[in-house]
Amino acid sequence: MQQRKLGNNGPLTSALGLGCMGMSEFYGDSDDSASLHTLARAVERGVSLFDTADTYGFGRNETLLGRFIAEGGAARRERMVLATKFGIVRAEGQYERRIDNSPAYIRSACEASLRRLGVEKIDLYYCHRRDPGVPIEDVVSTLAELVREGKIGAIGLSEVSEQTLRRAHAVHPIAAVQSEFSLWSREPERGMLAACSELGTAFVAYSPLGRAFLTGTLNMEQLADNDFRRNNPRFQGEAGQSNRQLVDTLAQFAAARSASSAQIALAWLLNKFPHVIPIPGTRRVAYLESNVAAAEIRLGADELAQLDGLFDPQRVAGARYPDAGFVGMETR
What we know:
332 residues; two-stranded antiparallel ribbon; 10 helices
C-alpha cells in the first residue's frame, strides 16, 4: 500500500489506516474473535496505522489491541503504528462525557493505556478532546515530557481549531490532527487542511465513510438498539431522507466507474489531499478488503470537482453529532 508520513518527523504509515472504535463500542454488540481476524488481515494487506482511544469500550478496545499485539509478538508490533487518545471521561453505559486535560490526568491516562496495550511506547498520542480551561501550551508541554521520556513517539490533537494547532505547534511539533472528514463532513477544508500542510502535520480523517451512511448499504431499521447512529441528527427524519438522495447520486457515480460508493468516498480523500490519512473503521474482513482496494483508485480533477459539487456542504442536512457529542470540540 502507498505510504504517508505522520508529520515532518513522524513515522511512515499506510495511506489508509484502520479505526478500531467500533470493535468495542457504539455500533452494536462486539465480537472479539471476528475483530482479531480483521486486525490480522489488515496487517497482511499492508495497513499499519491502528487507531484506538482509552474511552472506546472503557479501555476494552485498547485491551483488544493489546491482545492482538501480544499474540503476534515483536514482529507484528514492528508492522504497526499505534495511535491512542486521552481526555474523554465517561461513566459506564453513558454517552455524556466530561473532559480532563490536566497534567496529572494525562500522565495517569498514558500509563493506563500503556498497560492495556502491553507496549513500552505509544507511537502517536492524541489529546482526544480539549478542555478550554487548560491552556493548550500546558497540555503539549506535558506531552513533550512524555516524548522525552520515551513513553510516546509523537503528539496529536483531535477536533481542534486552526488557532489551537498553531499555538500547540509553537511548543512542540504536532504530528497529526484528527477530525471527522468525509464527503459530507467538510469542515477541515475551511483552513485546517491548509494549516496542516504548512506546518508539516498529517491530517487523519475519522469517519471517512460517514459512519457507513455514505456506503449506501446502511439500513436504519436493522441497527441494534445500542447503536449510537439511532440518535444522530444526520441519520434521522427529513435530514436522513435528504442525505439519502445525495448517497443515491454517489452510488450512480461509483457504478459508472465499477467501484462501490465507499471506495469512491475514500478515493476522493486520498486523491485530493496528499497529507490526509483516512481511518475507516470496520469489524468485517470483507469491508476491510473493499476499503484497501480504494487506495488503488485514481480520480481525475474533473471527477474530484464533480464530487465536490455533489456534496456541497450546503446540501448536507443535519448536525454530525447530538449536542452531547460536541463537548470538548473546537469545531462543529
